[in-house]
Amino acid sequence: LIFRNCETLYYIHQIFLQGLQVRMEKWPVLVLGDLFDMLLPLLVVYQDFVRNHATSLEVLTQCKHNHNFYTLLEKHENKPAAYGYSLEMYLTFPIQRIPGT
Fold first, then answer.
1. How many Cβ atoms are within 10 Å of 70's Cβ, its own excluded?
2. Using the 8-state DSSP alphabet, how is residue 66 labeled?
């Protein structure tokens, strides 16, 4: 599996982002503690993502041997919305941002 728990992680991030946006409307008074209290128990979802990271990269490498997959991936990675990053980089970003994992 390349995208283990990605939908769940996306959902968690959407909730967190909405909470941040509400608080930014009250700037310069910014209270974030309750957001992190809500987020903390949900971070266990990252464990599965982290454990599966190497497998995800291996599966992606295997999939790239399929010409149709590689062509589609290259097309999407070259879009401006990808900001010049590869899928491998997007799969690795969350790992780099969680200290101690």
1. 12
2. S
Question: Are the CB atoms for 60 and 87 separated by under 8 Å?
Answer: yes
Tokens describing residue 44: 């266990």
What is the CB neighbour count within 10 angstroms for residue 56? Answer: 19
Q: What does DSSP assign to residue 81?
A: G
Compute the distance between CA of residue 83 and CA of residue 81 in angstroms, rounded to an integer: 5
From start to end of 1-101, where are the E strands? none
- Helices and strands counted in the chain (H then E): 6, 0
Structure tokens at 24: 């930014």
Q: pLDDT tens-digit profile of 6-57?
A: 888 889 889 999 999 998 998 888 888 889 898 888 888 888 888 899 999 9
Contact 14, 26 (CB under 8 A): no
